[in-house]
Amino acid sequence: MFKIFAKPPTPDEMVRKWRSGIRAQERGLDRQMRGIQMEEMKVKRSIKQLAKKGDISSCRNLARELVRSRKQKDRIITSKAQLNSIVMELQRQVAVMKVAGSLQKSTQVMKSVNQLMKVPQLQSTLMEMSKEMMKAGIIEEMTEDALDAIDDADVEEEAEEEVENILAEVTEGVLGKAKPVSSTPVLVSEQQQEEEEDEKETDLEDMRARLSALRS
Protein backbone atom coordinates (compact mmCIF):
# COMPACT_ATOMS: atom_id res chain seq x y z
CA MET A 1 0.00 0.00 0.00
CA PHE A 2 1.31 3.45 -0.94
CA LYS A 3 2.24 5.79 1.89
CA ILE A 4 0.10 8.71 0.78
CA PHE A 5 0.63 10.56 4.05
CA ALA A 6 4.28 9.65 4.56
CA LYS A 7 6.01 11.72 7.22
CA PRO A 8 8.22 14.41 5.62
CA PRO A 9 11.91 14.38 6.53
CA THR A 10 12.95 16.48 9.50
CA PRO A 11 15.28 19.49 8.99
CA ASP A 12 18.07 17.49 10.63
CA GLU A 13 17.54 14.63 8.16
CA MET A 14 17.53 17.05 5.23
CA VAL A 15 20.82 18.58 6.38
CA ARG A 16 22.41 15.13 6.64
CA LYS A 17 21.19 14.33 3.12
CA TRP A 18 22.62 17.58 1.73
CA ARG A 19 25.96 17.08 3.45
CA SER A 20 26.18 13.53 2.08
CA GLY A 21 25.41 14.76 -1.44
CA ILE A 22 28.01 17.51 -1.18
CA ARG A 23 30.69 15.09 0.04
CA ALA A 24 29.93 12.85 -2.94
CA GLN A 25 30.46 15.80 -5.29
CA GLU A 26 33.75 16.63 -3.57
CA ARG A 27 34.97 13.08 -4.15
CA GLY A 28 33.99 13.39 -7.80
CA LEU A 29 36.03 16.61 -8.10
CA ASP A 30 38.99 14.86 -6.45
CA ARG A 31 38.83 12.09 -9.05
CA GLN A 32 38.67 14.65 -11.84
CA MET A 33 41.69 16.47 -10.39
CA ARG A 34 43.73 13.25 -10.22
CA GLY A 35 42.80 12.40 -13.81
CA ILE A 36 43.91 15.81 -15.05
CA GLN A 37 47.19 15.60 -13.11
CA MET A 38 48.00 12.16 -14.55
CA GLU A 39 47.28 13.33 -18.10
CA GLU A 40 49.37 16.46 -17.53
CA MET A 41 52.38 14.29 -16.68
CA LYS A 42 52.02 12.52 -20.04
CA VAL A 43 51.71 15.86 -21.86
CA LYS A 44 54.84 17.19 -20.16
CA ARG A 45 56.82 14.12 -21.23
CA SER A 46 55.59 14.62 -24.79
CA ILE A 47 56.62 18.28 -24.74
CA LYS A 48 60.14 17.32 -23.64
CA GLN A 49 60.42 14.74 -26.40
CA LEU A 50 59.11 17.13 -29.05
CA ALA A 51 61.42 19.89 -27.84
CA LYS A 52 64.42 17.64 -28.42
CA LYS A 53 63.21 17.13 -32.00
CA GLY A 54 62.78 20.87 -32.47
CA ASP A 55 59.02 20.62 -33.02
CA ILE A 56 58.18 23.98 -31.44
CA SER A 57 54.70 24.22 -32.97
CA SER A 58 53.50 20.97 -31.37
CA CYS A 59 55.12 21.98 -28.08
CA ARG A 60 53.15 25.21 -28.07
CA ASN A 61 49.89 23.40 -28.84
CA LEU A 62 50.41 21.05 -25.91
CA ALA A 63 51.48 23.94 -23.66
CA ARG A 64 48.15 25.64 -24.39
CA GLU A 65 46.39 22.45 -23.29
CA LEU A 66 48.32 22.63 -20.03
CA VAL A 67 47.22 26.25 -19.57
CA ARG A 68 43.59 25.17 -19.97
CA SER A 69 44.12 22.27 -17.56
CA ARG A 70 45.62 24.54 -14.91
CA LYS A 71 42.65 26.87 -15.20
CA GLN A 72 40.34 23.89 -14.74
CA LYS A 73 42.28 22.77 -11.67
CA ASP A 74 41.90 26.27 -10.23
CA ARG A 75 38.14 26.00 -10.80
CA ILE A 76 38.06 22.62 -9.05
CA ILE A 77 39.91 24.01 -6.03
CA THR A 78 37.50 26.97 -5.88
CA SER A 79 34.47 24.67 -6.23
CA LYS A 80 35.70 22.41 -3.43
CA ALA A 81 36.20 25.43 -1.15
CA GLN A 82 32.64 26.61 -1.88
CA LEU A 83 31.21 23.13 -1.29
CA ASN A 84 33.06 22.93 2.02
CA SER A 85 31.72 26.37 2.92
CA ILE A 86 28.16 25.09 2.42
CA VAL A 87 28.88 22.05 4.63
CA MET A 88 30.27 24.26 7.41
CA GLU A 89 27.23 26.54 7.23
CA LEU A 90 24.85 23.57 7.31
CA GLN A 91 26.60 22.30 10.44
CA ARG A 92 26.12 25.72 11.99
CA GLN A 93 22.46 25.64 10.96
CA VAL A 94 21.96 22.37 12.84
CA ALA A 95 23.33 23.97 16.01
CA VAL A 96 21.10 27.05 15.56
CA MET A 97 18.08 24.87 14.82
CA LYS A 98 18.29 23.32 18.29
CA VAL A 99 17.63 26.79 19.70
CA ALA A 100 15.46 28.40 17.01
CA GLY A 101 13.51 25.26 16.16
CA SER A 102 13.91 25.63 12.39
CA LEU A 103 16.49 26.22 9.68
CA GLN A 104 17.36 29.85 9.03
CA LYS A 105 17.90 31.72 5.77
CA SER A 106 21.60 31.87 4.84
CA THR A 107 23.09 34.39 2.41
CA GLN A 108 26.37 32.46 2.57
CA VAL A 109 24.76 29.25 1.30
CA MET A 110 22.83 31.23 -1.31
CA LYS A 111 26.02 32.84 -2.62
CA SER A 112 27.93 29.54 -2.77
CA VAL A 113 25.08 27.69 -4.50
CA ASN A 114 24.78 30.49 -7.07
CA GLN A 115 28.47 30.15 -7.94
CA LEU A 116 28.48 26.34 -8.00
CA MET A 117 25.45 26.25 -10.30
CA LYS A 118 27.78 27.56 -13.03
CA VAL A 119 29.97 24.44 -12.82
CA PRO A 120 28.60 21.97 -15.43
CA GLN A 121 29.41 18.77 -13.53
CA LEU A 122 27.74 20.10 -10.36
CA GLN A 123 24.73 21.81 -11.90
CA SER A 124 22.33 18.85 -11.87
CA THR A 125 22.96 17.96 -8.21
CA LEU A 126 22.92 21.58 -7.07
CA MET A 127 19.69 22.24 -8.98
CA GLU A 128 17.87 19.51 -7.05
CA MET A 129 19.48 20.49 -3.76
CA SER A 130 18.62 24.18 -4.21
CA LYS A 131 14.93 23.33 -4.70
CA GLU A 132 14.93 21.46 -1.40
CA MET A 133 16.77 24.30 0.32
CA MET A 134 14.23 26.80 -1.00
CA LYS A 135 11.40 24.73 0.47
CA ALA A 136 13.29 24.55 3.76
CA GLY A 137 13.71 28.34 3.77
CA ILE A 138 17.52 28.38 3.66
CA ILE A 139 17.83 30.12 0.30
CA GLU A 140 15.63 32.20 -1.98
CA GLU A 141 14.61 31.39 -5.54
CA MET A 142 17.54 31.10 -7.93
CA THR A 143 18.08 33.99 -10.32
CA GLU A 144 18.56 33.49 -14.07
CA ASP A 145 22.09 34.88 -13.80
CA ALA A 146 23.01 32.04 -11.46
CA LEU A 147 22.06 29.45 -14.06
CA ASP A 148 24.31 30.83 -16.79
CA ALA A 149 27.19 28.54 -17.76
CA ILE A 150 30.79 29.54 -17.22
CA ASP A 151 32.09 31.72 -20.01
CA ASP A 152 35.08 29.93 -21.49
CA ALA A 153 36.03 32.79 -23.79
CA ASP A 154 39.00 33.58 -21.58
CA VAL A 155 40.17 29.98 -21.93
CA GLU A 156 39.99 29.80 -25.72
CA GLU A 157 42.69 32.37 -26.33
CA GLU A 158 45.44 31.80 -23.82
CA ALA A 159 47.89 34.49 -22.83
CA GLU A 160 51.10 33.92 -24.74
CA GLU A 161 53.08 34.66 -21.61
CA GLU A 162 51.50 31.69 -19.81
CA VAL A 163 52.37 29.40 -22.71
CA GLU A 164 55.96 30.69 -22.69
CA ASN A 165 56.23 30.16 -18.93
CA ILE A 166 55.01 26.57 -19.20
CA LEU A 167 57.40 25.80 -22.06
CA ALA A 168 60.31 27.23 -20.08
CA GLU A 169 59.25 25.28 -16.99
CA VAL A 170 58.70 21.92 -18.68
CA THR A 171 61.75 22.05 -20.98
CA GLU A 172 63.97 23.65 -18.32
CA GLY A 173 64.61 26.71 -20.45
CA VAL A 174 65.14 24.95 -23.78
CA LEU A 175 61.92 26.54 -25.06
CA GLY A 176 59.77 29.37 -23.82
CA LYS A 177 61.34 32.57 -22.60
CA ALA A 178 64.79 31.14 -23.23
CA LYS A 179 65.89 30.79 -26.84
CA PRO A 180 65.46 27.30 -28.34
CA VAL A 181 68.62 25.22 -28.48
CA SER A 182 69.62 24.55 -32.09
CA SER A 183 69.89 20.91 -33.02
CA THR A 184 71.55 19.15 -35.93
CA PRO A 185 68.90 18.20 -38.49
CA VAL A 186 68.49 14.52 -39.26
CA LEU A 187 68.04 13.59 -42.91
CA VAL A 188 65.05 11.31 -43.47
CA SER A 189 63.13 10.25 -46.55
CA GLU A 190 60.02 12.19 -47.56
CA GLN A 191 57.81 9.13 -47.01
CA GLN A 192 59.26 8.51 -43.54
CA GLN A 193 58.77 12.16 -42.66
CA GLU A 194 55.13 12.07 -43.72
CA GLU A 195 54.50 8.90 -41.71
CA GLU A 196 56.07 10.45 -38.61
CA GLU A 197 54.01 13.61 -39.07
CA ASP A 198 50.77 11.62 -39.36
CA GLU A 199 51.60 9.53 -36.29
CA LYS A 200 52.60 12.60 -34.29
CA GLU A 201 49.42 14.47 -35.23
CA THR A 202 47.29 11.49 -34.19
CA ASP A 203 49.05 11.27 -30.82
CA LEU A 204 48.63 14.99 -30.20
CA GLU A 205 44.94 14.86 -31.09
CA ASP A 206 44.44 11.90 -28.73
CA MET A 207 46.18 13.76 -25.92
CA ARG A 208 44.12 16.90 -26.44
CA ALA A 209 40.93 14.83 -26.55
CA ARG A 210 41.74 13.10 -23.26
CA LEU A 211 42.50 16.38 -21.51
CA SER A 212 39.35 17.96 -22.89
CA ALA A 213 37.26 15.03 -21.65
CA LEU A 214 38.76 15.32 -18.18
CA ARG A 215 38.05 19.06 -18.04
CA SER A 216 34.39 18.64 -19.04
Output the number of helix runs: 7
- Report the uncertain regions: 149-156, 178-189
What value does the Rg take, in angstroms?
24 Å
Major β-sheet annotation? none
**Share in helix:** over 70%
Instruction: List SSEs in N-to-C order.
Output: HHHHHHH
Strand percentage, roughly? under 5%
The averaged pLDDT comes out at 77
Counting helices, strands and paired strands, the structural category is: mainly alpha
Principal-axes geometry comes out as elongated
Gap from first CA to last CA = 44 Å
| Number of E-type strands | 0
Task: Give the tags.
216 residues; mainly alpha; elongated
Give a quick precis of the structure.
This protein has 216 residues and is an all-alpha fold.
Describe this protein's structure.
The chain contains 7 helices and no strands. It is mostly helical and 216 residues long. Residues 149-156 and 178-189 have low confidence and may be disordered.
Helix and strand layout, with pairings?
Elements: H1 11-52, H2 56-100, H3 107-116, H4 120-136, H5 153-156, H6 160-170, H7 190-215
Helix pairs in contact: 1-2, 1-4, 1-7, 2-3, 2-6, 2-7
